[in-house]
Every structure is written in structure tokens, then in C-alpha cells.
Design a protein that fits this description.
Strand content: 15-25%
Distance between the termini: 47 Å
Radius of gyration: 54 Å
Mean pLDDT: 81
Low-confidence stretches: 11-20
Structural class: alpha+beta
Length: 358
């Protein structure tokens, strides 16, 4: 103890001198007393101007810092910036000893700016574990692993959480079955193209022209398709049901607002068509072409300036369909919430069960 007091006195005196010169070096030990084989740390601290080069003692791992005290590891230097253009550098050595003794760690040399500075010495006492070799019966061999006692207070939260998890799974299964039994209400927005009557009629006539029907049977089909195309056009263009009217009735209705010359050509076309369809009349090829041209002229002279348009048709759901749709949305949200809750409870229970078991 007396020896230790002397060391502390010398350390204080030396530290004061080095600090007065602008550089401070210091050595500390974490524990001055330890058992054989235990480890402790020896820390060297240097406070010096930032422009000074600092060189720590040239010590290596597996080297003895003093006989009987071995360095096991050298930790990385820790540098801290201080005020007044100063910095502090710390280095820690992990040391141990396997011999019972009182050791004096001598002052270590640290170079700062090429000048040597000595740290304060340190004292370390290594003691051994006392073993009573005369009474061996007092010692017992290693014990088997003992099971921890079952405590309901530790397991009850896991039990009730597991019960809640099973209840949520049952509710989720019920909601899933309900969701599958109720077919989803599909409401698609329909896009309807409105093609003007004259475009549809001219397209049909172009197709008829490409078919180039020549035989008598072909002529009957030819005039049937041609007149049906004109009837459909008249129905959409003039607003009366030409599909259910005779040729004479159609001409009579058109006479009220139409051009006499144009209607005269249309009358000849319908008369020729009636002869071909009902009297087995055979026309010439140029006559067919003439009637086709007359049909196209009639459509061109009576067409409107209407262009092709698109209309979005949004289906309207009934009140019952709306309720079913909202119910399905609610069930899906509940299923997601239940799934997340079950997953969270399962992870929590599994984690705590592993901790309690091991």
C-alpha cells in the first residue's frame, strides 16, 4: 500500500510537469487487482497540439509489457478534437497475467513532436483462486441441466393470445366463405361507337360490290342485300320504319320531303329489285351497276354531316347491387386486418415461447 502511494505521488508530479509544457501524457489501468487469467485494460492518453506528430510506444500483441504481464490485444486509437487547437489521442491495451504476483508496469515513452514524454507507472496485483485441497468432499461435480418450474403467469399471455389468434382465424375463414359465395358485381364501362347511317350503308354497298354476283340466284341475293341496306339507311336517316314497309310505301313517304328526280331513280331501283326477287327477272350487268350507282347517289345526296363518335355507357347499379358491393369491400378489408393481426400474434407468441423454452 505504501508503495502504491509513492507511485501515485510520482504520477501526479510528472503529470503536472508535462501539462505545463503544453503536452499531457497519462496512463490508466481499469482494474488494479484481478484473478489469474482475467483481463484488464491499460489506457494511454496524450493531449498535444494538432500540428505535433504523436508516436505511441512500439508494443505488439503477444508481447510482454513487463515480465509476467502479456498484451493480448491493441485496440484502435481514439482521437478527440479539443479547444485551442489541441487534440487527445487514446490507445488501449488489453493485458492479462497467469502468475500470481504484484506487478509494476513501468512508465512508457510517448514521442510528441520528436520529444520523449514518460507516462506515470502503474501497479497491478494478480491473485489466484484459493482451493481447499484437504477437503475434497466439499466440492460437487457438474449438475445436470434443470428444467425451470412451470409458471402460469409466464405462459398465460401466450395461451390467451393463441386463443385470440384461433378465434380470428375462424372469423377469417367464415368471411372468406361468405366472400366466395357472393359473386362479385362486375360493372364495366361500355364504349359504344356511333357510326353515321350513311357510313354504314356505303360500307355495306362496297362489300356488295366486291362480291360481284353474276348468276340469277346471285342477283336475287344481290338486290335483297342492296334494298335491305337502303331500307336500313332510310330508317335511320328519315326516322320511319322502312324495314316493315313496301317499296311503294317507302317512295310515298319520301315524296313528302325528297327530290323528285332522286326519288324517281330510287323508285326504278326498288321496282327492279321486286321483279328480280318475285318475278324471276334477269337483269343485265350494266343495269346492276346503274342501280348500285343510283343507291350510292341517293345516300350521298341525303346524308347528314354527322361524324363517327364514341359514347361511354356507365351501367347503373341497383340499390341491392350497391349494398352487395359495399359488403364485399368491407369483407375484404376485414380479411386483410385479420391476416395482419394473426401474423403479428403468431410471430410474438413464437418468439416468446422460444425464449421461455430456452
Amino acid at each position: 500500500m505504501k508503495k502504491l502511494l509513492i507511485i501515485l505521488f510520482v504520477l501526479s508530479f510528472f503529470h503536472f510537469n508535462t501539462y505545463a509544457q503544453g503536452v499531457s501524457v497519462e496512463a490508466k489501468i481499469d482494474s488494479m487487482e484481478l484473478l489469474i487469467g482475467e483481463q484488464t485494460g491499460v489506457t494511454l492518453k496524450v493531449v498535444a497540439p494538432q500540428d505535433k506528430v504523436v508516436q505511441m510506444p512500439n508494443l505488439q500483441a503477444q508481447q510482454y509489457i513487463t515480465p509476467g504481464v502479456e498484451i493480448l490485444e491493441i485496440l484502435k486509437d481514439d482521437t478527440t478534437q479539443l479547444d485551442d487547437n489541441m487534440r487527445q489521442i487514446s490507445r488501449k491495451y488489453i493485458v492479462t497475467s497467469f502468475d500470481e504476483n504484484a506487478y509494476m508496469i513501468p512508465a512508457l515513452t510517448i514521442k510528441v513532436g520528436g520529444k520523449d514524454y514518460k507516462t506515470n507507472p502503474l501497479a497491478m496485483k494478480v491473485i489466484s483462486v484459493e482451493v481447499d485441497t484437504l477437503h475434497m468432499n466439499q466440492y460437487f461435480g457438474p449438475k445436470d441441466v434443470q428444467d425451470n418450474p412451470f409458471l402460469w403467469s409466464e405462459w398465460s399471455p401466450m395461451f390467451w393470445l393463441s386463443f385470440i389468434m384461433l378465434l380470428l382465424i375462424a372469423i377469417g375463414a367464415y368471411l372468406y366463405i361468405r366472400l366466395k359465395q357472393n359473386k362479385p358485381i362486375i360493372s364495366r364501362i361500355l364504349i359504344v361507337k356511333h357510326i353515321p347511317a350513311h357510313q354504314k350503308a356505303l360500307t355495306a354497298i362496297d362489300k356488295l360490290k366486291q362480291d360481284r354476283m353474276q348468276s340469277s340466284e346471285d342477283q336475287k341475293a344481290y338486290y335483297t342485300q342492296l334494298t335491305d341496306t337502303l331500307r336500313q339507311y332510310i330508317n335511320e336517316r328519315f326516322g320511319f320504319n322502312a324495314m316493315e314497309m313496301t317499296s311503294t310505301e317507302i317512295i310515298a313517304r319520301l315524296n313528302e320531303t325528297g327530290d323528285p328526280k332522286m326519288i324517281s331513280e330510287l323508285r326504278e331501283l326498288f321496282q327492279t329489285a321486286d321483279l328480280v326477287k318475285f318475278a324471276k327477272y334477269s337483269t343485265l350487268i350494266n343495269e346492276n351497276d346503274l342501280n348500285l350507282v343510283n343507291a350510292v347517289n341517293f345516300i350521298d345526296q341525303t346524308k347528314t354531316q354527322e361524324t363517327e363518335t364514341e359514347e361511354k355507357i356507365v351501367p347503373k347499379l341497383s340499390e341491392n347491387d350497391k349494398r352487395v358491393q359495399e359488403s364485399r369491400k368491407l369483407i375484404k378489408i376485414l380479411l386483410w386486418v385479420i391476416g395482419i393481426a394473426v401474423t403479428a400474434i403468431l410471430c410474438f407468441v413464437a418468439y416468446n415461447v422460444i425464449i421461455l423454452m430456452f
